[in-house]
Records
---
Amino acid sequence: MSELDRNEPERTEFETAVMSLARSQGIDAREVQSLYDSILADLKREAIIMDFLPIFAARKVKERLLQKRR
C-alpha cells in the first residue's frame, strides 16, 4: 500500500506505528515502513473486518524484527 492509498486517519496511525516501532527497535524508520506496508497489505487481502489490522500489523512487524535480531 502506498502513501497515496491512505486516508488521513490511516496515514496518522501508520506514521505513529512506524515511528514507535523504529524507535523501540533502534532501526531506520524506512526499513520498518517497508515491512509494515508489506504485512498490512497481506493482512488486508485476507481480512473481513479492517478495524484492528494496524494493531496486528504492528505486532507482526515487531515479531519479525525480533526474529531478525536473533
Note: The helical segments are 8-25, 29-46, 53-69.
---
Amino acid sequence: MAANSHALLSASSSARWLNCPPSARLSEKIEDVTSDFAAEGTDAHALCEYKLRKALGISLDEKLPNLTWYSQEMEDTATDYVAYILEVLSNVKKTCKNPMVLIEQRLDFSRYVEEGFGTGDCVIVADDTLHVIDYKHGKGVEVNAENNSQMMLYALGALELFGFLYDIQKVAMTIYQPRIGNISTYEMAAESLLEWAQNTLAPIAKLAYAGKGEFKCGPHCRFCKVKAQCRERAETNMKLASLDFAKAPVLQDDEVEEILAKVDDLVSWANDIKEYALDAALKGKRWNDWKVVEGRSNRKYADDSKVVEVVTSAGLDPFEKKLLSITELQKRIGKTYFDELVAPYVMKPPGKPTLVPRSDKREELNSAAADFNDEN
C-alpha cells in the first residue's frame, strides 16, 4: 500500500497555496489533526487499491489491512470504482493494444514545485493520451475536475514519468466521487498543461516555498490550518461585518449582491473563530471575558435494556416500528440489491429554493412573480 506522506507544497493543498502562497510556510509547523472523515477516506482508498490490483491481476505486496471504517457502502463504492476503471481501460484498448496502468503511483512534479510530489490513485498511459483518475470518498463537497490544480499537478508528475516514452498529446483528468454520483472529467492539451506549469505554477510555487507572496482569503481557506488565526482573513471579514445589516432594506442592489457573495465566508470565519477559542480554552487557556460552561443536553436512558425490561413487564411496548432511511437501507442490503429491489420506488422531491451565484450549473427556478409576468 502507498506510503502516507505529504510535501510542503502538496498537490492536495495546491488550491490553497496557489491562491495564498505564504499560507504554506505559515501552517507548516502546525500539527495535522486527523478527522474521522479522513480516516474513513484512507480506508476507502486502501480497499479501492486492493480490489483494483486484484481485478487487474497485479501482484499484491501486502494483505489488505484491517479497515476500521469498513461498511457495505464502502465495499460497494470500491467495487463500482474498479468497474469504472475497467470500463475506461476497455475503451482505451480499442485504440491502444497495451496501455500502461499504475496504481497509487508516486508522481513527482518538483521540476515546477520545489520538493513537490503526490500520489495518483490510477494512471493509464495510452499512446497519445494520459488518463489520471482520482477517487474521492467524501460526500460533503462536490469536487470538479475542471481546472483542478490537484489533478493538473498529478498529470504533470505523470508526464515527467512517461513524456519521453510516449508522444502524449492530451491529458484526461477524472474525479470519481461515487457517494454523491459525481464523475467529472476534464481534458486539456499536454502543451497547455506545460505552459500553465511554466508560466503560472512555477512562479507562485517559488513564492510559496520561500514563504513570500500576498495573503488572500477565499474558499481555499476551508482546509487551512491557520484559518481561525489568519489576520488577512479576519480583516477581510471584519470589513463585511462592519456593515450595518439592520439597514439592509436601504442598501442598493449591487451592495446586497456584494454581501451575498461574501456572507458564507463571513459565517464560516466566525464559526472557525469560535471553534478555535473553545479548543484553546479546553486546553487550559483563560480568556479575559469568556469561560467554558456545560452546554445544554437532552435526556437519555442510562440503561436501554433495563428500560425495555421494566416497560415490557408492565405490559407495554417500548418500541416503534419505522422504515429505515434510504441511506441505512442501502447500507444494510447493499447497493446492487437495493437498486434491484427498491430503486423503482425511490423519488427525489424538489429541493428547497436557495440563492446561488450565476456560475452555479443548476437550472434557474422561475419565481411565482416571473411566472405571472410570463403568462401576461
Note: Confidence is low (pLDDT under 50) at residues 368-373.
